[in-house]
């Protein structure tokens, strides 16, 4: 059975003696995968025509636009984009996510980058995904009792496939009013609580207020960037490490170890690093997933900014360790340079640190840039003197700008508001091209 086989395979300690052994194994997996999948995908067959499989690491890349433009010929089972979109949108409207095409699950991304993506997962791939996710996420053996509470914008056959034997899975719809969700969550008493960090924050605040009493063994953040401010509140509420699962339309990319460090799932896919700043260890990942045949992901240039961990993780894993997911490359802010007419990109992490180190009484924030030279800062704080708080933040922003040789932006101050919703929370975002 694919589910059990995958669970057992990924639960066992890895046999690679070194990083070189792991990379060699990955190379063999990718070449074997390409030999099987290229003849089945008309798009890739033409795209990589006359190229040697042994040179796959330098193949031309694709991105979301290319994938969606060639969806009909990229997938290997002949599903049409128009038909898939129709089914996925109908599922969103009816909240019935069970219908499939050719026994294949159809999923629709949230479209935070402005371009909604489709993903296809076959029945076998669903089972293998379930085995993978349970091997990497469950706090205990699969043969124990588990109650998994999962909050997300949309349910899927993919997520429901984790319900096996003694594992109870419960989907909580983000469209359902928060009060109702909290009441049902308290009754369900999950052993594993999985949700976007913005929702985990609401649940944590209810726990701290005594409105609910949960004792999850594991708390897992998904779908959004886990901000240090949110992580602090969630950890305090549940007294445990806040783990992360890094997954998107393009693959099951990374999970945290027992120490809370994100590691790339290099036993499922390859991540090549497209460095934005090598000194700062910041890169965008180029993904080749050698476990997905229905919708092959080959040399896919993902638009996320990751920071590689500087020191080895204490867990000893050979898998690439990630210090932080910063968000999408589209959310790089741009400030006017002091010595150049060209706008200078500013990493979200720089802005994040300038804010959260300004005052320990800041409890939530959002930074939005609508045009060059201006930013909006939305602040929630227990500081009784908002003018003094703004001055502290301004000092930090000015110091940052001086250090990277850019002009300080004009700041518009706003009150922070983010009610529960199906929309992903992006704490730092740019709204202009």
From TrEMBL:
Organism the protein comes from: Polycladospora coralii
NCBIfam families reported for this sequence: aden_form_hyp (TIGR02304)
Name listed for the protein in its UniProt record: Adenylate cyclase
Signal peptide: none
Coiled coil region boundaries: none
Matches recorded under InterPro entries: ANL_N_sf, CapK_Type1_Caps_Biosynth, CHP02304_F390_synth-rel
């Amino acid at each position: 059975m694919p589910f059990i086989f995958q669970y057992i395979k990924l639960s066992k300690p890895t046999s690679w003696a070194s990083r070189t052994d792991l990379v060699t194994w990955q190379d063999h997996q990718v070449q074997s995968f390409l030999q099987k999948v290229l003849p089945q995908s008309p798009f890739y067959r033409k795209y990589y025509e006359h190229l040697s499989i042994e040179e796959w690491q330098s193949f031309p890349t694709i991105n979301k636009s290319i994938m969606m433009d060639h969806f009909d010929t990229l997938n290997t089972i002949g599903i049409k984009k128009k038909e898939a979109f129709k089914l996925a949108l109908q599922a969103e409207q009816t909240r019935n996510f069970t219908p499939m095409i050719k026994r294949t699950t159809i999923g629709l991304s949230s479209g935070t980058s402005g371009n909604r993506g489709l993903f296809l997962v076959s029945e076998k791939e669903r089972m293998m995904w379930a085995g993978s996710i349970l091997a990497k996420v469950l706090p205990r053996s699969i043969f124990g009792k588990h109650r998994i509470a999962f909050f997300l914008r949309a349910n899927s056959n993919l997520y429901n496939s984790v319900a096996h034997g003694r594992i109870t899975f419960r989907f909580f719809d983000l469209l359902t009013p928060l009060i109702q969700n909290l009441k049902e969550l308290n009754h369900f008493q999950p052993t594993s609580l999985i949700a976007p960090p913005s929702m985990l924050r609401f649940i944590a605040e209810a726990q701290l207020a005594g409105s609910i009493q949960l004792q999850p063994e594991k708390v897992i953040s998904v779908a959004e960037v886990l901000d240090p401010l949110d992580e602090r509140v969630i950890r305090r509420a549940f007294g445990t490490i806040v783990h992360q699962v890094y997954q998107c339309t393009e693959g099951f990319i990374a999970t945290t170890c027992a120490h809370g460090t994100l590691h790339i799932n290099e036993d499922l896919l390859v991540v090549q690093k497209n460095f934005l700043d090598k000194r700062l260890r910041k890169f965008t990942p180029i993904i080749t997933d050698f476990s997905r045949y229905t919708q092959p992901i080959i040399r896919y240039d993902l638009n996320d900014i990751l920071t590689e961990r500087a020191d080895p993780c204490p867990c000893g894993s050979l898998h690439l360790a990630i210090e932080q997911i910063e968000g999408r490359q589209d959310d790089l802010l741009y400030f006017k340079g002091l010595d150049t007419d060209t706008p200078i990109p500013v990493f979200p992490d720089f802005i994040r640190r300038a804010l959260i180190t300004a005052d320990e009484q800041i409890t939530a924030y959002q930074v939005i840039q609508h045009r060059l030279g201006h930013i909006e800062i939305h602040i929630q704080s227990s500081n009784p003197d908002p003018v003094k708080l703004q001055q502290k933040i301004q000092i930090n922003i000015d110091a940052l700008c001086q250090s990277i040789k850019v002009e300080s932006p004009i700041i518009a101050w706003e009150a922070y508001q983010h009610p529960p919703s199906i929309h992903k929370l992006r704490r730092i975002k740019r709204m202009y091209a």
